[in-house]
Amino acid sequence: MLRITDARTGEPVDAAPARRGLTRVEAHTQGLDPTNLRVLLVADLLVRALELGGTPVWALLAGERQQAELRAAGAALGVRPFEVGGDTGTGLGEAQVLHVVSEGGATPDGVRVAVAPAYGQAPGSPDGVDPAVLRLALLAHPRSTPVRIDPAVLGDAGETLDRWRRAVAGWARQPSRPIPDAVRADLRSAWEDDLDAPGVLSVLRAVETDPELVDGARFETYAYADRLLGLDLTHDLGSPA
Q: Origin, by domain of life (predicted)?
C-alpha cells in the first residue's frame, strides 16, 4: 500500500485509506516556473502510483495564474491531463484528498505532499531536447531535495534515457519472460515508500546489469516500471538493431 509523508506532521499516512475509494489528487500551482512544473510532475507520479494500486483517482489542477501554459508544459513532459479545479467540494465516493504543494506555498486543509524547489532550466524543454530527458532529470532526485537543472544534468539524463531505450528495443527482440517476483517487489517497495522515484530508477539500473536476468525479463521489468515513470522507454521498439 502506498504511504506518503504528510508535510503538516512529517508522518507517513496511507495515500488511499479506503480500498477502491476515490482519491482526489490536487496540484496547487502559482504560475509557470520550474518549481511549479515539478509540483505538477509529482502529482502526475502520485496519480500513476495510485492507479497502479487499483485506486480510482480524480486529478485536479488548482491555481490562479498561467494554468493553460503550465498544462501545456506538463503535457510536453508526459503529464496526463488534470482537470482545472479548486474549491470543488467532495466528489462522489471520495475517501481522501492529497494536496501536492510547493514548499512554502499553498496550505490547504488535508494531507499535503510537499515538493522542494527546482532551479535553472525554464519550463518545457530546450530546443532539441527530448522532454522525457527533463522528466528523468527531475525524477532522479527525491522530491524533498531542491534540484538544479543545467546542461550537465540534462546531458547525464539524456545519455541514460538513450541507453535504456536502445536496450529496451534490443531486449524486446528476445522471448518474453515474467518479471522476477523479487524485482517486482523491489519496484513496488520503492514507489510505495513515499513515492520514491529515485529508488525505482536504482532498481532499473540493477536490472540492466544483473547477469542472472534474461533479456525478456529485463524488457518486461522496464515496461512495467515505465507505467509509473512515464519516460516512454519503449520509444525505440522496431528500430533497426
A: Bacteria
- Give me the domain span that covers residue 214: 130-240
Please indicate, yes or no, whether residues 7 and 105 belong to a single structural domain of this protein: yes
Same domain? For 107 and 62 the reply is yes
DSSP the chain: --EEEETTTTEEEESS-STT-EEEEEEE--SSSHHHHHHHHHHHHHHHHHHHTT--EEEEEE-SS-HHHHHHHHHHTTPPP-EE-SS--PPTTEEEEEEEEETTS---SSEEEEE--EEESPSS--TT--HHHHHHHHHTS-TTS-EEE-HHHHHHHHHHHHHHHHHHHHHTTSPP-PPPHHHHHHHHHHHHBT--HHHHHHHHHHHHH-TTS-HHHHHHHHHHHHHHH---TTTTTTS--
Give the three cell numbers for residue 171.
Answer: 531486449
What is the residue-averaged pLDDT of the chain?
Answer: 91
Q: For residue range 212-241, list pLDDT tens digits in order.
A: 999 999 999 999 999 999 999 999 887 765
How distant, in Å, are the alpha carbons of 82, 166, 236 from that of 233? 23, 9, 8
Q: Is the residue at 124 inside a domain?
A: no
Last residue of a domain, one of 119, 153, 183: 119
Residues 10 and 55 in one domain: yes
Model pLDDT for residues 69-112, shown as the tens digit of each residue: 999 999 999 999 999 875 555 555 567 899 999 998 889 999 99
Number of domains present in the structure of the chain: 2
